[in-house]
Design a protein that fits this description.
Number of helices: 4
CATH topology: His-Me finger endonuclease fold
CATH class: Alpha Beta
Helix content: 40-55%
Order of helices and strands: HHEEHH
Structural class: mainly alpha
Shape: elongated
Number of strands: 2
CATH superfamily: His-Me finger endonucleases
């Protein structure tokens, strides 16, 4: 394994380009089962943006999203999207109901403005 030299990030640096310390890499490997190279490959696959909102993270790295049931890594998310999925308990059904609710509400608003 290549030895990494940890460097203090420059101001306004792309947070995803900043290498983790060896200790941080070890924690990520143990917790999620992925290496820094795996993270970087996911980042490239997602074009450097959150898998949900498609925004680039400016202040911190994208979070490693994983299933709490299986432990499997699903992708990289910004902090907001990652927390919001957690608030819906990783439930597809709850998220779908929320999406349906928003869609219905928007359609009702359009009809009312009519």
């Amino acid at each position: 394994m290549a030895k990494h030299v940890w460097k203090k990030p420059k101001l306004n640096a792309d947070p995803s380009a900043v290498r983790r310390t060896p200790a941080e890499e070890k924690i990520i490997q143990k917790k999620y089962g992925i290496s820094e190279n795996d993270y970087q490959n996911l980042l490239v696959k997602q074009n450097g943006v959150c898998a949900i909102c498609q925004r680039h993270q400016r202040k911190q790295r994208l979070s490693i999203d994983h299933s709490h049931k299986t432990g499997r890594v699903r992708g990289l998310l910004c902090t907001r999207c990652n927390r919001n999925i957690g608030r819906f308990f990783d439930s597809y059904e709850m998220l779908q109901r929320a999406a349906d609710y928003l869609k219905q509400s928007a359609q009702s608003a359009e009809i009312a403005q009519g």
